[in-house]
Amino acid sequence: MSEMTSQSPAWSAAPCYLCGRSTHHVVANAGYSFQSCVSCGFRMQHPLPDPADDEGIYGDEFYADRSLDRGLDAQDAVNRSLIDQRVHQLTEVNGGPGALLDVGAGTGLFVEACVRAGWQATGIDPSAAAVRIAEKVTSAKVLHGRLEDVVVEPKYDAVTLWDVLEHLSDPRAGLRRIAGLLAPHGVVAISLPNVSGLKSRLLGKRWRYYRRDFGHVSHFSPSTLTMLLVQAGFAPVAVRTSGLFNLGKAFGLNPAEVRADHRLLSRMQAAADAAAGGMGLGEDLVVVGRRSSP
Ligand SMILES: [Zn+2]
Asked: Using CA atoms, how far apart are residues 146 and 124, in angstroms rounded to an integer?
């Protein structure tokens, strides 16, 4: 896509992907424009990115640059606790461990945690680099491929999409495909950044997830993600936001240091997180939906 195309005055608003009503243009960074729905607030990149651009974001360079080649036991306390919470929540929703597919499994940390908790878990990831690391640092099975490549029989009890759905150019089609991979009462669990969270509201166009290098096509709130789930044949089971600012940052501390060594700050952080989450203003949005249509 050329700069000429993206900056053309002939830019026109398409109807909202989610509800079909009219949209307006909200962010126009170089080559990267969004439409925001005047009715439901859903935001989607327009025009949609070239799928070839997407390949670049999580290619070899991404996995080489970020020292992601550490296994589950080498993760810091914050990351471990996030993974454990997710496994625990799914085990509760499913009434025990079952068969699980993690789409966009990356280096396999979540799949490994699921296996340790008794799940029969498999991951799939389009990045060959991620799959190579998974083979090295986990015993988890992570296949190289895309959601479209998955064929399964019998069906899964749970499919997880951690920071994946916002990258798809047709998220409804992706969720419908997942509905077809699930057992009749199977669940899908999704996490992504909350566009109606406090950070996005305060920062406006400067919210980090509008940056091109994140490759986020869609920006969901608790209500728009719930709408999409329903359209794709799921009934929402849980919708939750969490996480706010890292209060320790002002003192040069990372979240793990705050938690380990600073009791007062740690309690303040927990209170701030709980307050933001309770108001739907947290930065991280997690929803779980149960398959409701055959
Ligand atoms: Zn809409």
From this structure: 7
What are the backbone dihedrals phi and psi of residue 174, each rounded to the nearest 5 degrees, phi first? -60, -45
The tens digit of pLDDT for each residue in 53-62 reads 655 556 666 6
Question: Does 47 sit behind a cis peptide bond, omega within 30 degrees of 0 on the bond before it?
Answer: yes
Find the helix or strand (DSSP H, E) in which 157 lies. strand 156-162
| Sequence-distant (≥ 6) Cβ neighbours of residue 210 within 8 angstroms | 27, 29, 32, 34, 216, 219
Give the tokens for residue 25. Answer: 């243009």
Residue 231 Cα to ligand 1 middle (Å): 13
92 CA distance to ligand 1 middle (Å):
33
Dump pLDDT digits (tens) for 66-82.
Answer: 667 788 888 888 789 88
Note whether 255 and 246 are within 8 A (CB): yes
Could you tell me the distance, in angstroms and rounded to a whole number, from the CA of residue 223 to the centre of ligand 1? 11
Express as a percent the part of the chain with pLDDT over 70: 88
- What distance in angstroms lies between residue 38's CA and the mean position of ligand 1's atoms? 7
Task: Tell me the pLDDT tens digit for each residue of 101-159.
Answer: 999 999 999 999 999 999 999 999 999 999 999 999 888 899 999 888 887 777 999 99
Given a contact cutoff of 8 angstroms between Cβ atoms, the answer to whether 177 and 103 are in contact is: no
Distance between Cα 17 and ligand 1 center (Å): 7
Our CA dihedral for 253, 265, 279, 202, rounded to 10 degrees, sits at -40
Domains of the chain by range and CATH? 1-47 (no CATH), 55-205+215-241+281-291 (3.40.50.150)
pTM score of the predicted model: 0.87
Q: How far is the CA of 20 from the centre of ligand 1 (A)?
A: 6
Could you give the 3-state DSSP secondary structure of residue 121?
A: strand
